[in-house]
Amino acid sequence: MLGRCQCLCLAALSAPALLVASHNLVQNFSAPPGPSRCPPVPPTSPLNASAHPPGAPAWERGHHQPRAFDVTIITEWDLVCERGPLPALAQTLFMAGVLLGAFIFGTLSDRVGRRWVLLSSLLIVGAGGTGAALAPDFTTYCVCRTLSGIGLAGFLINYIGLSLEWVPRGARAGVVTWLSYCSTAGQLVLAGLAYSMRDWRHLQLAISVPFLAFLLSAWWVPESARWLLVQGRTKEALRNLQRVAHVNGRTAAGEGLSLEVLVQEGSYSSTGRSTGSWLGLFLSPALRRISCCLMCVSFSTNLAYFGLSMDLGSFGLNVFLVQLCFGAVDLGAKAACALALSRCGRRPVQALSLSVAGACLLASTPLPAEMLMVRLALVVLGKGFLAAASVCSYLYGGELFPTVVRQTGTGLMTVVARLGGMVAPLVLVGGQYHSVLPPLVFGVTPVLAGAAACFLPEMWDVPLMDTIEQVEERARRKGPEPVVEVVCVSHIIRSTRI
């Protein structure tokens, strides 16, 4: 059961989480896929002069596009013919921004704390998205989208980590699932906003300006007491814990906490302080195995997930309807995932969801064009299992990494995940030459990642670990018994319901 303070923190983080998916997928509507034909001869040629009078665009749009696509970055900046690959480049640069942001903010969060990185990330996302909406040219648009991706990475890394470090073990799966539901709701909201707004600039503003307002609600979110204790900042940890206890209606329990006990706790954990480097994730055997397996899971999940999300137009149907189906299937998939995580554990859910997703996508590959709806059903089902795998990986990664390198590890997973997102458009481009390539790649990689997930340790009903030594100790035991949680933190969690 969550206390009032935890519920308020989740509410403050849920609002920006609602628009996370919008920033990932907005270019599906700002630059919708779909067919534009270039003339076989230059528009200045005498043979083509009547078809393309002076001043007319040297291309012809597909007639099946909905009217909501009348104003896009493609039509505004003529990104067709030889400039046709530029929309994919813009999406790749956004993914590169997320990659760069994860590289920067991952280690920075373990050095300076989760809260300040979270606040600065919200500011960067709001500023970058607003700048993209007001961009006078395509180059400026790409720069602002890259900046928005950098800020988005900082938010993605920290809002999950802060939530995990402030809630008891029994509520971790439910909290992460709730936050992932906010992202799913964002997909549905994006489809509605894109349908109602005829100009891509208005759509970009609608999902960017709110991030500037989210700074106000996130300002009072407390720094992780667990991180403060590991860093030896016991006075700040004591203030935060007493504040949480007061908000939760347990003021007496908070006042009963003593600095002496927290000092003892800080001295216990200080031996495991982070070096602030990704290298620390590969120096110890158990942590190295965790890092390598999670890298496979993150890369494969995002490669297939974003590949499917960017290929809405391949079904020849209304992209609004396809986007709505993709968002709706996530609702059921994530609910089933939350139930399975609380009943079956993390490892089997992670491995099974990836394997079934890959199998569904591979099964859709040989289907002929006449079986479009069957293929669509298999792809939608596969995306649902990928959504479940994504929820599990967010929770699983946050639980497997100890506090001293939790955000560094999460940052590494985000970098690898966005590498998958960057490769996805390239796979789709390859599909123009070999149509079987995208579904084959998007199907095989999740199956391989599901096999890699089988080598991860189980974290079901296991307390969060604070130091690398605790991770190694649990690996040496090779048993299901959990590591004994630090006494002080366990007492604080029980007494203040955090």
Automatic annotation (TrEMBL):
It is a multi-pass membrane protein. InterPro entries: MFS_dom, MFS_sugar_transport-like, MFS_trans_sf. Pfam families: Sugar_tr. GO terms for molecular function: transmembrane transporter activity. Residues 32-45 have a biased composition (Pro residues). SUPFAM superfamilies: MFS general substrate transporter. Residues 1-461 form the Major facilitator superfamily (MFS) profile domain. One of its GO terms (cellular component) is membrane. Keywords: Membrane, Signal, Transmembrane, Transmembrane helix. Residues 32-59 are annotated as: Disordered. The keyword Phosphoprotein does not apply. The chain crosses the membrane at residues 88-109, 116-135, 147-166, 178-197, 290-308, 320-342, 373-397, 409-430, 436-456. Residues 1-22 form the signal peptide. It is found in: Membrane. PANTHER family: SOLUTE CARRIER FAMILY 22 MEMBER. This is Solute carrier family 22 member 6-B-like. It comes from Alligator mississippiensis.
